[in-house]
Design brief:
heterodimer, A: mainly alpha, MetI-like fold, 2 domains, B: MetI-like fold, 1% strand
């Protein structure tokens, strides 16, 4: 009896200390993630002179000199536009090809299903950006070189496996009985899909579309290999690393990071569900 | 349009796409690596391996992976277990931990450049603390060690999130009852972690490690932003062969080499961390 009593007295104290440690560690880890981003933003929001000056201030002066230099720098506006274009095309392609496959995997049992899943999973064991190298030659022959669609096709190989697996999990989460009920009430397969399944799956599909957009927006290697005139923002920044001044780099880095932060925020609810299913 | 044909019809676009843009370029890269001017040859691999930079790039890439991945694994496990025990602010913490997931490797390199640059924040901090009199050149060609540390930190910062997210998703699949039973029998939190979480998390650990190791071999933009050519890595050398040296065939041989070690390590981890069918949840 006495040991139980002791335990119940000692436990809250220990738990309290444990909780403090827990919270402190979590806060420390949050600082570890957020502080570097903050420092980049400080640089982006300082004047070019302040960026190259030493010592530095740890607070932004809210001078838009660096940013306006970046935006007006030759080629930046076009690179931004190309990035958006390629990412949008990637998004459309990967959802357009991926969602039907995800639906088929979730609703049908058929020979060859495992082979397809293996093909999709296999893509993840490969450093896919490398495949841009042979494609560069193929694209020159077919006239796809240095075009947004050509790069979007390569980015789609990166995003498609995710689109398939995510939509597969989404459709699996919608009871097949709902569809069956619609069929018995006279809907065709297509009508049932459009009126019952699609509205339920739409938010998730939108999330995986945003994810595909982000993958393309962030990709560096294939973009640098496949584009010359029509460079994306990442390719532009990579190829001007050698000669561009610091404030251009940091403003460019901020231009890459800010949209990514918004994207991740938009899909935060789905992140873990997506990766949960990507496990199997 | 019903019955048996429908699933195949739905799978056709994705399958065709993967054949044309995944399997075909893969075959093409292998073909280019083994040919030169139309004939079969191993010369491309000889040229690749004969370059004085090759051993250095292999060593740097493998060393970087060997340093970065274990640290990330521990950090990801720490983040995942911490978050699961948090009572308030769980989703906020998860979101913050997941942020680097959406950040490009190039942007991550630039972020850490802001810290390690000669006029950067680390130098400012050190000089404010009185440790140094004038800014140190952390990323110069003479300071390979600090470049390595900066790249490793940037990689750890950027890519721990991907492992963390996979592990959090995996922990969600472990039934609560196991922990409750362990608690009834008086198992300490550490014991519960070792005896329940780790074994049952094996499938997720496997996925996370494989994915992360492959990404570690692909390290490119972080190094380009922080080290330039002072820390040559495999992907950077491949890019170099393709553009600076204008030799597609050797670049293809490099690509094949990276693919080979990626597949080798994938098979290795599939075997070492394999989960028997009966032991799956």
């Amino acid at each position: 009896m006495s040991t139980v009593a002791e335990l119940s007295i000692a436990a809250p104290e220990a738990r309290k200390a444990g909780n403090w440690l827990l919270v402190a560690t979590v806060i420390l880890l949050c600082v570890w993630v957020l502080l570097p981003i903050y420092l980049l933003i400080v640089n982006a929001l300082s004047s070019p002179e302040e960026v190259t000056a030493f010592p530095k201030r740890f607070f932004p002066s809210f001078d838009f000199g660096s940013l306006s230099f970046f935006i007006n720098f030759a080629g930046v506006a076009r690179a931004l536009w190309n990035s958006v274009l390629v990412a949008t095309l990637t998004m459309l392609l990967s959802i357009g090809f991926g969602a039907p496959a995800g639906y088929a995997l979730s609703r049908f049992e058929f020979p060859g299903k495992e082979t397809f899943r293996f093909l999709v999973l296999m893509t993840r064991a490969f450093p896919l950006p490398l495949l841009a190298l042979p494609l560069a030659v193929m694209f020159i022959r077919t006239g796809l070189d240095d075009t947004a669609i050509g790069l979007a096709l390569v980015h789609t190989t990166l995003a498609l496996p995710f689109a398939v697996l995510i939509t597969f999990s989404l459709f699996s989460g919608i009871p097949v009985e709902l569809e069956e009920a619609a069929w018995t009430l006279g809907c065709t397969r297509l009508q049932a899909f459009r009126k019952i399944i699609l509205p339920l799956a739409l938010p998730g599909i939108a999330a995986s579309a945003v994810f595909a957009f982000t993958i393309s927006w962030n990709e560096v290697f294939a973009a640098a290999v496949l584009t010359i005139e029509n460079r994306t923002l990442t390719a532009f920044l990579l190829q001007s690393l050698g000669e561009s001044p610091l404030y251009l780099k940091f403003a460019g880095g901020a231009a890459l990071v800010i949209p990514a932060l918004i994207f991740i925020f938009a899909v935060r609810k789905y992140l873990f569900a997506m990766w949960g299913i990507a496990n199997r | 349009m019903h019955g048996k044909a429908l699933p195949y019809l739905l799978l056709t676009p994705a399958t065709l796409f993967l054949c044309v843009f995944f399997l075909f370029p893969f075959a093409l890269v292998a073909f280019e690596a083994f040919t030169r001017d139309g004939g079969f040859t191993l010369d491309n691999f000889r040229t690749m391996a004969g370059s004085w930079k090759f051993p250095v790039t292999v060593r740097n890439t493998l060393l970087l992976s060997a340093v970065v991945v274990p640290i990330q694994l521990v950090m990801a496990l720490l983040m995942a277990t911490m978050v699961s025990r948090l009572e308030t602010g769980r989703s906020a913490a998860l979101y913050i931990f997941a942020i680097p997931l959406g950040i490009s490797d190039l942007a991550a390199g630039l972020i850490w450049l802001a810290i390690f640059d000669q006029s950067g924040f680390l130098n400012t901090l050190l000089s404010n603390l009185g440790v140094i009199d004038r800014p140190v050149m952390f990323l110069g060609y003479q300071s390979k060690l600090t470049i390595f540390i900066a790249v490793a930190l940037a990689e750890i910062w950027r890519a721990t999130a991907i492992m963390m997210v996979i592990l959090v998703a995996g922990m969600g699949l472990i039934p609560r009852e196991y922990y409750e039973a362990a608690e009834v029998f008086g198992a300490s939190p550490w014991k519960r972690f070792i005896k329940i979480t780790l074994p049952l998390l094996r499938p997720s650990l496997q996925t996370a490690i494989i994915l992360r190791v492959i990404l570690a071999f692909e390290v490119f933009a972080v190094v380009a932003a922080l080290g330039g050519t002072n820390l040559p890595v495999l992907m950077g050398e491949t890019y170099n062969w393709q553009f600076t040296l204008q030799d597609r065939n050797v670049a293809a041989a490099m690509a094949l080499f990276i693919l080979a070690i990626s597949i080798g390590f994938t098979l290795f981890f599939l075997r070492v961390l394999r989960v028997p069918k009966e032991a799956r949840i």
